Amino acid sequence: MSHNTFGHLFRMTTWGESHGPALGCIVDGCPPRIPVTAEDIQAYLDRRRPGQSRFTTQRREPDQVQILSGVMVDDDGVQKTTGTPICLKIDNVDQRSKDYSEIKAQYRPGHADFTYDTKYGIRDYRGGGRSSARETAARVAAGALARKVVPGMSVKGALVQVGPHRIDRSRWNWGAVDDNPFFCPDPQSAEHWADYLDGIRKAGSSVGAVVEIVAEGVPEGLGAPVYGKLDQDIASALMSINAVKGVEIGLGFEAAALTGEENADEMRQGNEGRPLFLSNHAGGVLGGISTGQPVVARFAVKPTSSILTPKRSVTREGDEVDVRTKGRHDPCVGIRAVPIGEAMMAIVIADHYLRHRAQVGERRD
Question: What is the mean pLDDT of residues 325-332?
Answer without folding.
Answer: 73
